[in-house]
Amino acid sequence: MALDSPKLKDVLKDVASGVLQLPDFQREWKWDDERIRALIATVTLDYPLGVVMALETGGKSPFKPRTIKGAEGVDGRAPDLLLLDGQQRMTSLFQALHRDSPVETVDTRGKPLRRWYYVDIAKAIGAPSERDDAVVSVPDDRVLKTGFPRRVALDLTTPELECRAGYFPIHLVFDTQKVNAWKKIFVGVDDENWDRWSQFEENVLNNVKSFQVPMIKLAASTTMDAVCAVFERVNTGGVPLNVFELLTATYAGNQEYVARHGEYYRLPEVWHEIKRKLTSARPVFGRMEAGVEDGLSSSDFLQAVALVRTWEHKQEEPRAAVSCKRRDLLELPLADFDRLAPRLADAFHWVGAFLERQCIVRPTDLPYRTQLVPLAAVRAIVGEETDTPGAEERINQWYWCGVLGEMYGGSTESRFPRDVEQLIAWIRDADAPTPDTAAEAAFLDDRLDSLATRNSAAYKGVYALLIKQGAVDWYFTEAPLSPARLIEQNVDVRQIFPRNWVEKNAPAHARYVNSIVNKTPLSLRAGRSMVGAPSTYLRTLVQESGVRPEWFDDVLTTHLIDPATLHDGDFERFYDSRAKQLLELVKSAMGKQTVFRETQGR
């Protein structure tokens, strides 16, 4: 890392020639008109501008570069420097001080503007405190109008009119020939302008011409991880940069790929097509109309690819580690991503089918999106080995332990690699140690009491298990609920004992009314009839469904409900009975006993 202080004039020349460009991951952003005027005032006063940061390329850019806005005529030139911090300052100064065209900016409300910038000479040679007021912007037709009806307040459409008004066009500042031609007209307007010009040249123009830009230059050997970290730390006012954007620029700059294919690699398009196919076949992965990052994200996919790549590397080098940390993603070569992406896309399709077998088909019903990452990586590695009866049983147990034990609620960076390695070993050998996620998972017996919203993975898990074990809707009673019916019949969790009824008739137990114990998956149509006492709405549902009353009780039992407790309106007995049955359901899914408070000494 080196600190340099090149003159602003030279930096802007580098921008114009393409020596200094932007890495493609930099987002477009426009400073508003007011900030640009303040920036110009700062430069004319020779006040500190703030350090900018650039990455040396060594003649070979690690990212796809793009020119700074306004310098598009040099597209295709390989840059010597990539600007990491200072884009807005350099873009604004380049457009305002170097180009002979209006600056593209916005007003305080974000409305696009095209403005020319001038310095009011009379004000500029006054006190430095007035310098902000001395910098003026006018519309691209160079006519400033005020009032209503609109009246011309300032006409700067010709050099003569500029000189009469005493407004110097600041974009001429580095063109000595044009400055002298303008000066000649200006001093010819009034003899007193000679003195004004001398002061203006000394206090304004010379400051701009000699202005230095403090620039930190990072060596070309700087790692991707460091570049990303530096970029995020210095760009605190913007949207955080993510790994996908950095890889997009890195892959697009891969000259070997360009040489082989005649075009650069478009990672966003590749991801968009993968995600489109996944969501069209498996809605659980998100809604494309809500954006490509809705649901399963590009980060999830990259992590799965990194897990497979590092697992493969460990097979060749046992001391290596399976990992999907940020560093592993940033160091993911294009060749490996291109090779593994189709395998991971197929693996996620398999994961979608696996979730459907668990009766999880909608994004809102998915307990943990993160748990899909190691599962997809495992499928990509072992392939059809996951489909044997024994392997599927063990995968089911691992999955439900993760959900009901709420094992994926915290940091996953260390859990991902462990699950990949341990689950693969368990799939291939039933006698291998149980994966930590399954071995460490626990479900406390009173956890059901506090499962009240979709914020909990276990809440969604119990809901899905009720469907999976054969719950029948209370209106559409012809067959058990199925993945297809969940969407078709607008199935959701509905309260069995309505809140109003419990608060009035069993107030001592009102705190349990939102528990998953008092909820069950039912269609919207059934839910409309569930008003008042259960004994009352059951009679209504019996009539509406056309099922004989004694048979309807059998429908209730498919939800692990004791029908007598509903007919009798006995909330306490209903709750205790159903809680025990739900605990057995959880125990079966996890393949282990639930943990009772008394066994913990509480």
Rg of Cα set: 34 Å
The largest sheet has its strands arranged as 1-12-3-5-2-4
Structural class: alpha+beta
Please report which band the strand proportion falls in: under 5%, 5-15%, 15-25%, 25-35%, 35-45% or over 45%: 5-15%
Largest sheet: 6 strands, mixed
What gap, in angstroms, lies between the N and C termini? 59 Å
Helix content: 40-55%
The beta-strand count equals 14
> What is the tally of helical segments?
28
Overall outline? elongated
Average pLDDT score: 91
The parts where pLDDT drops under 50 for at least 5 residues are 598-602
Describe this entry's structure for a reader:
This protein has 602 residues and is of the alpha+beta class. Helix content is 49%, strand content 10%. The strands form 4 sheets. Strands 1-12-3-5-2-4 form a 6-stranded mixed beta sheet. Strands 6, 7, 8 and 11 form a 4-stranded antiparallel beta sheet that branches. The longest helix has 24 residues, at 334-357. The protein starts with a strand and ends in a 12-residue tail after the last helix.
